[in-house]
Amino acid sequence: MFKKIIKVAVIVTGVFFVSCGAYFNQPVTISKAVLGEGTQNTKKLKNLPEPEQKIVVGVYNFRDQTGQYKMLQNGSSFSTAITQGSTTILLKALEDSKWFTAIERENLSNLLNERNIIRSTRQEYRKTSNPNEPQLDPLLYAGVLLEGGVVSYDSNIITGGLGARYFGIGGSTKYRQDRITVYLRIISTSSGEILKTVYVSKTILFQAIDASFFRYVKFKRLLEVETGITKKEPVHMAVSEAIEKAVESLVIEGLKDGLWESKSDESEVKATIAEYDLEKEEAINREIYDRINTKKRSKNVFELSAGGTLFDADYPKPKLELMPVKVGYKRSLNSYFNLGLNYAKFNLANRDVPGYQSTYGFMSFDLKGEYIILPFDDFSPYIFAGGGINVSNYFKEVVPKVEYGLGLEYLVSSKIGIKIYGGHNLVLSDELDQVESGKRDDFYYRFGLGINYYLPNSKKKNESGLSRKEQRLKRKLEKRNNKIISDKEKIGLNTNTK
Q: Domains in the chain and their CATH numbers?
């Protein structure tokens, strides 16, 4: 009985510490009001280069355009999934950037009514109080307008979890990810031209962890313990971060296009633009689930590995032997396929058999193809297959063979990859162990741990310092611009640019 109680106590204690975050962070007291938290992008927004002159901007309505309602287990509620105060969040972001002077336009009627009250009051009492009282200052007018909104709220773009239960003891974890999308555009009030449009998305994460214990510890004595914690990223914070990122993008895009200037140091401005361009390039190559389609492996690779071999021939007791070295070179045909040459020095062995040789030395020369399953990830499985020749020491015997297998590779850096692999070699001979017996030929397995060294891609440049790819892109852009200018001249448009 005592042992059972101790066992139950240990299990309950374990469950307690697994979910200790739920206990140690429970809101058990009334909290006081605090200043609003910043997002991950707030500090970056406030540290933008300083403007040469602030831009007067008007925001009439930056609203929720999704029409999405909050999800419940059995449907949806009448509460909206997105905050209806997006305009206020945008005005705060414009203020934090220090690039804009925001003027009141959302509740303009209230402002005009108040100004009319002030004006009528002054007119009524001017004769008796102060006839020389100055007129009410005129309102600022906006040089540009900001329009747009939260255009989509996608629920459950990815869901998942993991759980296990055994004899009443178990736990599970679940997660769900939503996504919001924000569009923001800036419009010239003098011409009505849309100067720039930016697009930002932000995911919202929901997580839940629970553990439970349910068991009879004694006849008619049932012990049941449950614990868990659920964490949800605030939608308001996600909307704020997306809007702040949109404002930051708008400022930098304007700097790039010459819409406005900065009085900060030129090197600081260039560094900010370069960082933004890198982020923008990654965004172009990024898929919906944060998978970046950027090629990470160069075309030319040298590989070095060592490992072991295991015989599968006529003797019943094969022996594991070390493979001292395997070297090779492979060339990338595209992001997924490689073609390579390999040389390996290895031994094959059986456990001692009276009257027969037990260890045999070999070399192999292989030509094989390799298929990388996840070429744009640091960690990727791959499969390989090919053929070659198996050569005994001193070239006494040369026989063809076929090899296939699979492996895993992890990129430590842009030049170094660590891999493990295993392959099955089918030798087209039954005399690899110097014994011919049975119907099938001799086989052996080869596996190892190695390093791939990726040579940097050579970038041949001309006198202008541009690579061939950059030269081709430049020629395409020049050709396109010349065509646009030609088309404008045909219809009599002015082609002068700022």
A: 2-24+36-105+142-285 (3.40.50.10610), 300-454 (2.40.160.20)
**C-alpha to C-alpha distance for 69 and 72, rounded to whole angstroms:** 9
- Tokens 């202008």 belong to 464
pLDDT at residue 383 tops 80: yes
Label the pairing between strands 63-64 and 144-166: parallel
Tell me the pTM.
Answer: 0.67
Number of H helices, E strands in the chain: 8, 18
Q: Are 203 and 177 in contact (CB under 8 A)?
A: yes
How far is it, in rounded angstroms, from Cα 106 to Cα 111? 10
CA distance 299 to 311: 34
Q: How would residue 478 be classed by pLDDT, with cut points 50, 70 and 90? A: low
CB 380 within 8 A of CB 388: no
Residue indicated by tokens 């026989």: 399
Q: What share of the chain is helix, strand, coil (3-state, %, to 5)?
A: 25, 45, 30
Q: At what angle do helices 235-257 and 86-97 cross, to 10 degrees?
A: 50
| Interval 334-355: pLDDT, tens | 889 999 999 998 888 777 665 4
Torsional sign, CA 316, 317, 320, 326: negative
d(CA 67, CA 76): 12
The residue written with tokens 């200043």 in the block is: 35
Length of the chain: 498
Give the least confident one: 63-77, 423-437, 452-466, 472-486: 472-486
Residues β-bridged to residue 406: 383, 422
The CA dihedral of 237, 241, 242, 248, to the nearest 10 degrees, is: 160
Q: List strand residue ranges (DSSP E) for 219-358, in order.
A: 221-232, 300-312, 318-319, 321-332, 337-350
Amino acid residing at 189: T
Please give the angle made by the CA atoms of 169, 175 and 180, to the nearest 5 degrees: 170
Q: Which has the closest alpha carbon to 447: 271, 323, 277, 333?
A: 323
**Is residue 452 a contact partner of residue 409, using CB atoms and an 8 Å limit?**
yes
Do the strands 318-319 and 416-427 form a parallel or antiparallel pair, or are they unpaired? unpaired
C-alpha–C-alpha distance, residues 347 and 363, integer Å: 8
